[in-house]
């Protein structure tokens, strides 16, 4: 193996090899990085908001004071090792980081990576500083396994292979199962398996790859049901010239038709429903591997040949455009299959003499040889944005060097699930450095995500990262030798390095920030080519862009991977208990960068807090709207905006990009064809789409959509309608963050509330007088016909003190007294459909939603008194089983839903019940860190 030979040579001091010199950049000599921080003890108690049950509890854990509650919860529950409640259980971030870093430093010393023990100590301190300051993170298997008695698995991504024999197919099932059991994911290409249109040697007809997918899918589904870490994640790829490609393309679309039929027949087919398990092929992402020949045939409306697997003979000739449209139609119906561009992938392949790249991991970012693996790490880009608004190139370069060194060391001590994977990985040493928070960085620097400036900055950063990574790889090769497969692939590897360097020269910079980064990148590529020519390279691959799901939350990143901001509003848990909806911290930073004054910034942020978008925000210039465009919401980024960003950074990545291009429900099959075709034309390696509401298990509407009735304007003056002297009234005593008050709401005998009186503060005080005047103004407006719904829309989410916990089980948190009052009025006096459209539900209605039931069923009868369904009278309100973290939302996705009045197409977390959010081509739970994939 490579590390054994070269490591031995280094230890003996043969030749001119010298260990690496490590330079301090983050730390201070004589001061341990932990000693520069303020540490505090916290209690971690994680509950399932649906039933109040405690999922995890560990008290007295130790973290830096600037770590968010969410990051603390996730690291404590996911990564601390040892049985909870025992002395062996880790309780401090220091212990976790020490455990992991110790394995890297000891191995690097033993293998001759460092020039001296002092360099080893600097490496130790620098790595610990970067980790505790959330500057980067290794992928989850490192935190799970390194330094424990478990096998030292460090890779999250695996590629398998399967041949056209029953023994190989059964090995495939077994190898996938082993990988899934460990919480990782795997992908493979089934194109070597004979099609159902070919004969076996016995004279019978082959089953075809799609039939064997059933067994693998059932295995993955079983392991998913019993898994404790996350679901089984897998990718299945088939070449476009395989005779069964049409059946493969339609496989999941047909199953979606089955889901609709069973649902209409009364079966429970929602996500997690008891009958959804009968549907096949749901545990894998499917992708078609297309060639340039095929895409050119699509472009020219030509014919395309499907070929036998064993002989290469033409089995069938089809119209390329028809096959391409079949792919787009299936994706329109169910989001599968995705597409992988085979010739582009292999044109950037550093090991062509060893074999072609035929498949990817489940999230499509790792693409390399069969039976290989990749360990990942991601940099938090926002950590390098200085207070002066510049990008700290020097610190970024040094951190990238540090990470690549550590990642390469990990392959030396790592264990692998199969011997074949171990051999390939040790011989080629594939790494996957990437980043998170690109979307937040772009917004904070005043760049629109879908803009030339945004793409230029992203390209420059990506080029700098990969240039430094390969330059460092060459330097490591000079110390401990190149990877074992380098000699036979030297020309191919150096050719790809020259392609990266040439692509770097093509970056068109637009401002001082991206110009400075690009200048540094050009220097790094020059040094990379020079060092590679002299020493070769230690790693066949160096970079990719992963979903950064759980580790993104660990680093407190606002955005994952290459993604833009999800929305301008986000959900935040509070250390003292409870939660709140806040405007992303990146927004005021962006406004300051764009030149707005503090008063303007406050007004714009307040507007966003109320409306969830920037359109018509006071004082915000329309030309700046695009800076605040997000993945979802009022000004969602167009599908091609996502594709163009991917194309901007792809030439600077060894691997590919984990990303799903979201498309609106109204998107057509032709729109998907355009996205797939442009992905090929722009040089992407892989592309997947998701059209809103294409899955049966993910309904679009929370409540029935209101029909807009347009009437001709009539010039009328409102007439005040006074209440009778005797009228029904409801008195509510309330408490918001300890501030107590009373609300009396009087109603017309036949038609809704018409008068509100509020008592808050001592009689004769300024506050009491203001509340009296406010009450009269609201009451008079109601009597003049202003709908209560209008007031609810205006005053909910208004923020000022006092704010916090209430004593109302329907409204556990309020952002102000006004927020509470008008939510309570809505629950007491508005019909369900209007409340649902505003995202205001009772505790019982929310519980029904969580259990997959439709709260509208409670309100189907017109004679049902909606006021009796709201828990209004204090004496009849049952105490909740456990305080819910928020009244309307439990994750950022649910915040977005409450703003948009519709359910987003994202699954619920199986662990804690919150709505997950997209992370690349996977999903991640903000509540507990669980992911739906292999990130």
From TrEMBL:
Domain Ribonucleotide reductase large subunit C-terminal: 155-690
Domain of life per record: Bacteria
Keyword S-adenosyl-L-methionine (UniProt): no
EC class (word): oxidoreductase
Keyword Oxidoreductase: yes
Domain Ribonucleotide reductase class II vitamin B12-dependent N-terminal: 44-134
Catalytic reaction(s) noted: a 2'-deoxyribonucleoside 5'-diphosphate + [thioredoxin]-disulfide + H2O = a ribonucleoside 5'-diphosphate + [thioredoxin]-dithiol
Cofactor list: adenosylcob(III)alamin
Single annotated GO MF: cobalt ion binding
Domain TSCPD: 725-827
InterPro entries named in the record: RdRp_reductase_class-2, RNR_2_N, RNR_lg_C, RNR_NrdJ/NrdZ, TSCPD_dom
E.C. numbers: 1.17.4.1
Keywords, alphabetical: Cobalamin, Cobalt, Disulfide bond, DNA synthesis, Nucleotide-binding, Oxidoreductase
SUPFAM superfamilies (alphabetical): PFL-like glycyl radical enzymes
NCBIfam families in alphabetical order: NrdJ_Z, PRK06556.1
PANTHER family the record matches: RIBONUCLEOSIDE-DIPHOSPHATE REDUCTASE (PTHR43371:SF1), VITAMIN B12-DEPENDENT RIBONUCLEOTIDE REDUCTASE (PTHR43371)
Stated family: Belongs to the ribonucleoside diphosphate reductase class-2 family.
Name of the protein in its database record: Vitamin B12-dependent ribonucleotide reductase
